[in-house]
Design a protein that fits this description.
The protein is an alpha/beta fold. It has ten helices and 18 strands.
Amino acid sequence: MKAAIFNGPNQPLELKEVPTPEPGAGQILVKVAACGVCHTDMHYIDHGVPTFKQPPLILGHEPSGIVAVVGEGVKNFKEGDKVLLPAVLTCGYCFNCRIGRENICDNMVMFGNHVDGAYAEYVLAPAKDTLHLPDEVPLIEGSIIADAVSTPYHAVVNRGQVRAGDNVVVFGCGGVGINAVQIAAAVGASVIAVDIVPEKLAAAKRFGANAVINAKEVERIDKIIKKMTGGGADVTFEVIGNPSTIQQAFSCIRKGGRTVVVGYTNKNVELPASKIMFFEQEVIGSLGCRPVDYPKIIEMARTGKIKIKELVTHKFPLEKINDAFDLLRSGDPTVIRSVVIP
């Protein structure tokens, strides 16, 4: 099969022929329909973030596809089934899995990190983690449910505990942030989107934001948010990974409010402990998505409660995968999510 091989940081992915894997007991071989192009992959390529499996490695953790071969003992899938593969596989038996927090599984395995991913014609997956994709959800665009949609779903619904009527502010309207906007809107919140790129703010409006703010055009965003919400947001989401925007997101919540950190940074963030204590404010993290939530997200996509097709703005053949990453690096404001189609 053809695959895009990651040989190490600071070099392009290499397209080459590699052996097609064969499914063992409990596994399925999936013919990849599409795989999303994610900043996480770019961190491995450009920034030297180490992968658990040493290169050479096939990246790609946001795939959809069609079942090609079924391994021994697999009863819930057959050849030809449309499927979605979650970005992270869970063990099911560690403490966190047992208490329903599988997204922080002690033994988690991530496609394109611990094992070969889906920037290839085929990918091997455990049947127990694979999800059926209904006909109403487009196969190619549906691939991004695996991460770009599921991660903000978990952040909004489980960690943010957003409810109908809440005032929500989302900082950062990229591929994940835009879905935090539309999922918060889908559950009935009033959403304010914050970014510095006009095109991203326009997209946020299309995906359900009630109001948008260009952070470059205001001096004190917390004052504006508190005026707009009558005292502060119920929940804010930081989906960038920048200490300053984490601080801004925290400054915008009301007494008893909550800030959810979705963006990754390895830098320290200074926050006022006195407010956290005296105003009973919360700062919590959010990582990935629990397996139990994927059927709900797929159903939201199937019924049109959330948009999927409109999220995929660019498509690349596998042979042009390095062009897909060049586009991501460019910061082109028209990009919401790109996918690679083997």
